[in-house]
Write a structure and sequence with these properties.
The complex is a heteropentamer, with one copy of chain A, one copy of chain B, two copies of chain C and one copy of chain D. By secondary structure, chain A is an alpha/beta fold. Chain A contains ten helices and 13 strands. By secondary structure, chain B is mainly alpha-helical. Chain B has eight helices and no strands. Chain B starts with 13 loop residues before the first helix and ends with a helix. Chain C has one domain: Rossmann fold (3-Layer(aba) Sandwich), CATH 3.40.50. In chain C, α5 runs parallel beside α6. By secondary structure, chain D is mostly helical. Chain D is 80% helix and 0% strand. In chain D, α1 runs parallel beside α8 and α6 packs antiparallel against α8. Classes of the chains: A alpha/beta, B mainly alpha, C alpha/beta, D mainly alpha. Chains A and B meet through β2 and α6 of A and α3 and α7 of B. Bound molecules: adenosine-5'-triphosphate (2 copies) and magnesium ion (2 copies). The site of one adenosine-5'-triphosphate (ATP) has 11 residues of chain E, from β2 and α1.
């Protein structure tokens, strides 16, 4: 597609957002503790909190658009949102289609499996069904680097975790950052493989060519990192959900 | 064990949230139906004209919407419209548009079918007393085709309502999407919540659609009785 | 010679490749009643429908009240106010009451004053003894009653000329008479010019000034009624007449 | 739009295409069987089964396939009943299609005119013979357009299988889009793939409708 | 007194609350031809349909060949092989050829030998001059031809008794004669016992031994054909006869 848009008619430029008074941010709706909707129907989580902070610093209101993993790119490209804060891992393919700002989290692919039949080595997965969500780095990793593993591909996080609980695959692969959380609230499961494939980062993303918002976001991330904002965010939003398996430095980037 | 899970529905604001989601669903279906039916009536009428290019174009429109699954239509519009035509709508409005166009296509076929099934001699009787084409439609064809159209239209409405279930795929906050949020949020407190939440949604759809299809059946039965004397 | 209301010259009609009317020539004078007889499929309905623009024809001319008709849909629509037609299948509009069926032409096509049109409709309904049924719907009428209303509906436009196509063919035998009486009245008292297609030989005998006998789309005979029924010229017409009274 | 991208994706779409066809085929055959059983049970008013069939038809017709599948795939295992994804898809499709087919057959049987039935009675045919020689042959012909419409409908419904991770056509397209972000190309292939299956069917349907409208029988 | 083939006693029929047959009493002797006359809606079809078990009745008895009929669907199904019926709307089965239409009853219901049944069917078809149409489908026949086949279909079961309900009512006038000729043949040559509902007065006069005149579901007259047509007893019957020849 052609995603060229000059800054003059760019509806997502900083000035345009300020003029509208709202920023549209894509978040997950079913991924505790990053972006989800709690019992009271409120959007909460690590990413959501960051989104509120971003809006506050921009001096505008925030409007959330709930996305699934496989439509984060298109949400940007089709001007449905201005910014994606949905656990968006930076990959070479994605870099070609969107612009990533500075990262705010570390991540790599992990594999969760039942405690009574734990998967600890990738070789255990050969010829078996592994559950993933469409459009995630886990899917890309297994599709390109582990061709002997059979994948069951779902649209949403709810669907993939339900499928694991129903025993539709021997294990589930996704970003380790939320597998930690999920396995804590589902104690029958364990993150048997903590990290496979390349280490990568999670970053905010904007539409390609949206220099104005990209620069602003980069400055914002730097500023927030300096203020140790992410450590705080980790402690309030993530820590309660993580088991002993994780510590802040597994997730949050060093304050430099 | 399963019965304990039912309370997930009444935890916090869950039930009202589900109803809210249902309202989104119903609203999209209703608005799409209203616009789609109006569009379909116009197109259906046009399709009875003898103008060949017009008929071919309208036929292609119908075939496109009839052949492409609604899920795919949604994605087509969702992905392609904004980028190729710089035409941007929030997901729920976009869904309404897609559904309306789809309803318009199906409706045009219903209307055309009903219009051409008005007996030929009725048209001739109309002509014989000097009615012009517009008057023929206004006083003879349209009123007489209504009894055929109404049951078919109600059935179409039930189909549209059922099809709203796929809205979840383009992240409209419909009843199913909200249901998934609730399932996820209450995952460890109510492991059987999935059963009850989907069960309730199942019931919601049934409660909306069943009366409609019952009504359509009754109208259809009465029409047949009338037709057979 | 009297005023010619209608003149048909060299009319030819095809359905696709099927030649159903061959070189039809005849005329109808003011006040004359012509009956069109002939076996089933001989082209009677087709001919009469050509005269009302419900069928297109491929050759020939139709001249009405001295004017050659240019057969466009628009012209026909105008002419149909002057050339009334009643069909076999008493085709009232089921969605309208008897009164509305009758008023549709006068008020919507001729833009007559609604009040005046209604009075006229009431007069006509009374003349066919159906005053009580003004607000009934067609399905509440018997076949004979519906057919009488259909005639009134055509008459309400005050046509100069009437075409009747087997208007009693789908009626119960007992109901036939009422309808035929009305047509007879139109012929005798109102001196209406008309063409009548019918299978009721007695009726044809009684009403017709002249008979056109059609066979395979050709006019085989065209004589006075008296001559046709007493002494038909062609053997085919004779055979036809024989078969009609069992 | 890049042809190279399209070409690269064709093997994957080929697999999805096969799967869509296969699932549709099994689902449609199953639907016809279930529909036939239901409509026969209803035609002969078999006690108990007749009521069961009616309840089934109403439930199946008035709920979305997507929820039916969610139930089968995600909710049933909670109760200890578990089927594989493809089996769930087929069961769901048959559950849905069975009622549509049943309505189609029943409509055809009811469409056989009363006078035909009476003529059959008048020559002494028994209830079964009447069904065998008069009502069923005519009823099936009458139900053919409804059947064809149902076939198209059911094939399109397989696109919903994407939600239970069956890699049919739609799932394949969405998956590729999620990984490589070439939505134009993949959606184009997807639409073409459905057109290849459904356009011929739609044309046949139109022809069938015409044929039945003019009441042709025999050859 | 001759053998009574059929006896109807105190028959009453309601459609819901509508009382359509009032205390009907009559009998038919072996070889007798009874015509049922009466205005439209008087209950002729309803009565004749009761005699073939196509309508239920609420009171009274029907005795056929000395046996009182217990009106269950099963009994009627047996009896219909002996009581043939032909309807107005020549209802052949469109999915079967002419031959298969005729063979259905003899081979499937009566389990006759297929070869023998076919020979008999051919003989019957020949007798109505339709030998050439054995393999045609009903849509290829004209109305008159189809109606003749329908009669053959009923006769193929060799019924003792035939019921005809206005079998010429939907035929073109020219086709009526062929069908009536066949029924006349059945009456005169085959001495078939039958009840005939018809609107063709000349035909009724010619064929009937006895006339039942029905009005509003009651038998108003029940006399010999000669007497009925020359000197009807009730004024209603007289009126009816008058209306029939215009
Ligand atoms: N729409 C049509 N298409 C093709 N042929 C037609 C059409 N209408 C009539 N015909 C043919 O034209 C011929 C004349 O038909 P028409 O209806 O005028 O006869 P008719 O004299 O009115 O017969 P009837 O007494 O049965 O009404 C017939 O051979 C008929 O089959
Ligand atoms: N299925 C029905 N339900 C209710 N009333 C009926 C039904 N069939 C017939 N009737 C009524 O029963 C009466 C007798 O009808 P029937 O058809 O027997 O008359 P008929 O003498 O055969 O008339 P025709 O000469 O028009 O055939 C009529 O008043 C008719 O309206
Ligand atoms: Mg005609
Ligand atoms: Mg009758």
């Amino acid at each position: 597609g052609n995603s060229k848009s000059s800054s003059s008619n760019n509806p997502s430029s900083v000035s345009a957002i300020k003029k509208k008074g709202t920023i549209r941010i894509a978040v997950f709706g079913d991924l505790p503790p990053y972006g989800w909707v709690n019992k009271d129907g409120k959007r909460v989580g690590y990413d959501v909190k960051l989104a509120h902070q971003v809006a506050k610093d921009l001096g505008v209101k925030v409007k959330f658009v709930q996305v699934n993993a496989n439509n984060r790119v298109d949400a940007l490209n089709s001007n449905k949102v201005d910014l994606v804060l949905a656990n968006f891992t930076v990959t070479p393919q994605r870099k070609q289609v969107v612009s990533f700002a500075k990262p705010y989290m570390k991540v790599s692919v992990g594999v969760v499996s039942p405690k009574n039949k734990p998967v600890t080595k990738v070789s255990q997965l050969q010829g078996k069904n592994v559950i993933v969500t469409k459009g995630t780095t886990a899917e890309t990793y297994f599709t390109t680097d582990q061709k002997k593993v059979k994948l069951l591909k779902f649209d949403s996080k709810t669907q993939q975790f339900n499928a694991l609980k129903n025993g539709r695959g021997v294990a589930l692969a996704d970003d380790n950052s939320y597998l930690y959380a999920w396995s804590k609230s589902n104690p029958k499961y364990t993150v048997g493989i903590k990290s496979i494939g390349p280490k990568s980062y999670i970053a905010p993303a904007v539409k390609k060519g949206n220099k104005s918002l990209l620069n602003w976001t980069n400055k914002e991330i730097t500023k927030l990192t300096k203020k140790s904002y992410f450590v705080n965010d980790y402690n309030t939003e993530l820590k309660p959900y993580f088991g002993k398996e994780a510590k802040p430095s597994d997730i949050v980037l060093p304050t430099k | 064990m399963a019965h304990s899970g039912i309370s997930v529905l009444f935890e916090g604001t869950n039930f009202t949230r589900l109803l809210g989601g249902l309202w989104v669903t119903v609203k999209i279906a209703a608005v799409a139906l209203i616009f789609g039916i109006i569009l379909g009536i116009i197109l259906g009428g046009l399709r009875t004209f003898k103008n060949r290019p017009l008929r071919v174009v309208l036929r292609l429109y119908l075939e496109f919407f009839r052949v492409v699954p609604t899920v795919v239509l949604l994605f087509l519009f969702y992905y392609i419209l904004p980028r190729q035509m710089n035409f941007n709508l929030p997901a729920d409005q976009l869904a309404t548009l897609v559904f309306a166009l789809w309803v318009g296509a199906e409706m045009s076929d219903i209307v055309r079918g009903a219009l051409i099934s008005v007996p030929r001699h009725q048209i001739e009787s109309g002509k014989a007393i000097g009615l012009n084409r517009f008057q023929l439609y206004r006083y003879v064809l349209i009123p007489q085709s209504l009894t055929l159209e109404i049951p078919a239209t109600i059935n179409l409405a039930t189909r549209v309502i059922k099809t709203t279930s796929i809205l979840l795929l383009i992240s409209v906050m419909d009843v199913i999407n909200i249901g998934q949020q609730i399932i996820e949020a209450n995952n460890h407190t109510y492991p059987t919540g999935v059963f009850w939440v989907y069960g309730l949604i199942f019931l919601f759809y049934f409660l909306i659609d069943y009366p409609l299809s019952w009504w359509a059946k009754r109208l259809e039965k009465r029409r047949l009785e009338k037709a057979n004397g | 010679m009297a005023d010619k209301v209608l003149e048909v010259a060299h009319l030819e009609k095809f359905y696709g490749k099927k030649h159903v009317l061959h070189d039809i020539n005849f005329s109808v004078d003011q006040g004359e009643v012509v009956t069109l007889l002939g076996p089933s499929g001989s082209g009677k309905s087709t001919l009469i429908r050509c005269l009302n623009g419900l069928e297109t024809y491929q050759k020939g001319t139709i001249t009405f009240e001295g004017q050659k008709i240019v057969p466009t849909e628009k012209n026909w629509q105008q002419l149909r106010q002057k050339i009334g037609m009643v069909f076999q299948s008493y085709d009232l509009f089921p969605n309208l009451t008897v009164m509305d069926n009758i008023l549709l032409g006068p008020t919507k096509v001729q833009k007559q004053d609604k009040q005046a049109a209604r009075q006229e409709a009431e007069r006509l309904l009374a003349s066919v003894e159906l005053s009580d049924y003004a607000n009934a719907y067609p399905r509440e009428l018997s076949g004979g009653q519906a057919q009488r209303v259909a005639i009134v509906r055509a008459l309400a436009l005050h046509p100069d000329f009437m075409l009747f196509d087997e208007v009693t063919a789908s009626l119960d035998p007992e109901m036939v008479r009422g309808v035929l009486n009305i047509i007879e009245g139109l012929a005798d008292q109102d001196n209406m010019t008309m063409i009548v297609v019918t299978h009721e030989m007695n009726f044809a005998k009684q009403i017709a000034d002249r008979v056109l006998f059609l066979q395979d789309g050709e006019i085989l005979e065209q004589t006075s009624s008296k001559q046709f029924f007493s002494n038909p010229q062609t053997s085919r017409a004779k055979e036809f007449l024989d078969s009609m009274d069992f | 739009m890049s042809w190279a991208i399209i070409q690269q994706s064709l093997p994957m779409f080929g697999k999805g295409f096969e799967l869509t066809l296969w699932l549709s085929f099994v689902g449609i055959i199953g639907s016809i069987v279930v529909g036939l059983i239901c409509s026969l049970v209803q035609y002969f008013r078999v006690p108990v089964f007749h009521q069961i069939a009616s309840v089934y038809v109403e439930i199946s017709r008035n709920t979305p396939l997507l929820i039916q599948l969610f139930f089968l795939y995600y909710a049933f295992p909670v109760l200890g009943i578990k089927f594989g994804a493809q089996l769930c898809g087929i069961i769901g499709l048959i559950f849905l299609g069975g009622s549509y087919m049943a309505e189609g057959f029943t409509g055809g049987f009811n469409g056989v005119s009363k006078s035909q039935v009476e003529s059959g009675k008048a020559i002494g045919l028994s209830r079964w013979q009447l069904a065998r020689y008069v009502v069923f042959p005519q009823g099936f012909s009458l139900s053919v357009p409804a059947m064809a419409a149902n076939v198209i409908f059911l094939i399109k419904e397989t696109s919903i299988f994407t939600v239970i991770a069956i890699p049919e056509l739609t799932n394949t397209a969405l998956d590729l889009i999620g990984m490589y972000y070439r939505s134009n190309e993949y959606l184009f292939v997807l639409v073409i793939a459905y057109a290849i299956i459904l356009v011929p069917l739609s044309i046949i349907l139109t022809l069938l409708e015409k044929r039945v409208r003019y009441g042709t029988f025999g050859n």
